[in-house]
Each structure stands twice: as structure tokens, then as C-alpha cells.
Amino acid sequence: MYVRFLLSLRNVEDLLHERGIEISHETVRFWWNRFGPMFAAEIRRNRVSRMRSYSNWQWHLDEVFVKINGETHYLWRAVDHEGEVLESYVTKRRDRKAALKFLKKSMKRYGNPEVIVTDKLRSYGAAMTVIGNAPKQETGRWLNNRAENSHLPFRRRERAMLRFRQMRCLQKFAAVHYSVHNHFNQERHLYNRDNFKLNQTAALAEWRQLCSG
């Protein structure tokens, strides 16, 4: 519940109290720190092979400004053409070195896409020249809207958590949050209600099986 919904640790404590389960909010923190990354890794593992089979795979790269104790950090994200967040990476700078490390991390896990859409930040072009992906890069004023729109769930979560206090916590939570969001993001506006309910039920069944394992 803590990862899926806009809830605080104490909100989860109160909800479990209504169900007759007496725990501390620190227990919820321990549970999510212990099991959240495990669930996220399993979700990613189940999707990697399917993603790599796309012949027209397109990535959208963008970065979000995040304040940690008053200092600006950058949350880099790779989003595919279906709107799923593939990878996230937190850095203190927005230079070529950071962009190169982020690209190498993403490509090591997911392979090489056919097209990479970015904004006009020169760090992307410099990093792709090093990798050899410069011909695959595309930039444009509205081409990267897919990545821009994918900021919204993270921003809502950031406000609910009253910001992050450590770079390590931001990296860990972003990785877990994006994986779980991908799993339950059924894009309901693309389906009629019957098909949406079927997809939602299948996602929930897979989630319960993953958690029980």
C-alpha cells in the first residue's frame, strides 16, 4: 500500500490498525526497505525479455530537478514509447559524465534501442558520441512529451512524502516506485471498462503471486 498509493507510513499503520493488525510505522518502513526492492527487481526481470523483442523500440530520456536538503539533484529517467519507466538514476550534476553513466546503465540492462529521443541538453549528445549512438538521437520541441508526462506520478509522490532527505533514499524509492507504477498502469483511457477490469484483475493476481513468493 505504501508504494502503490499516496500514503505515509502512519497512514498505512492506521489502515492496518482498522484491520486488527497492531504495528508501528517503523515496521512499515522496515518492510518496504526489505521487500520493496525485491518486488521491483522481479517486475523488471519479468519484463526485460519482452521489451527487448520490440523491433521499433524507442526511448525518451529526460531528467527531473529534485531538492534534497536544499541542494539540487537530478533524477535521470529512460521512458519507452509505451510510457513505461525503464531506468532511473540520481546524480549531483547534469554533465557528460553523468549522462554517459546513465546511458551505460540503461543499455546494460535493456539493450540498445532503435531511437533515442532527448531534449537539447548537450550532455546527451556528448555521451552518445562516446557510445556511438549519435545517429539514433532525435531532438524536438514536442517529441519528448512522453518523458515529460511521466514526471507526474513521481511529483505527486514527492509532495506526499514531503521531499526526500538523502540521495540514496531517492534512488531506492524511485526504482521501486517506477516498477510498481509500471505494473499497475493500465492506461484506462485506451480501453473500454470491461477490458480495463480484466487487465486490472490480471495485474493484481500477478502482484499477489509475486508478494506471496
UniProtKB/TrEMBL annotation:
- Keyword terms of this UniProt record: DNA recombination, DNA-binding, Transposition
Supply the InterPro entries for this chain: DDE_dom, IS_Transposase, RNaseH-like_sf, RNaseH_sf, Transpos_IS6
One GO BP annotation here? transposition
One GO molecular-function entry: DNA binding
Positions of the DDE domain: 56-186
Q: Does the keyword DNA-binding apply?
A: yes
Please report a single Pfam family linked to this protein: DDE_Tnp_IS240
Supply the Gene3D superfamilies for this chain. Ribonuclease H-like superfamily/Ribonuclease H (3.30.420.10)
Say what the protein does. Involved in the transposition of the insertion sequence.
Protein name per the record:
Integrase core domain protein
